[in-house]
Amino acid sequence: MRFQCWSVGKVNESYVDEGIKLFTKRINNYYQTEWQFISSPKNAASMNEIELKSKEGEIILGLLKNDDYLVLLDERGKHFTSEGLAAFIQQRANESKKNIIFLIGGAFGVSEEVSKRADYKWSLSPLVFPHQLVRLILAEQIYRACSINRNEKYHHV
Question: Rounded to two decimals, what is the model's pTM?
Answer without folding.
Answer: 0.94
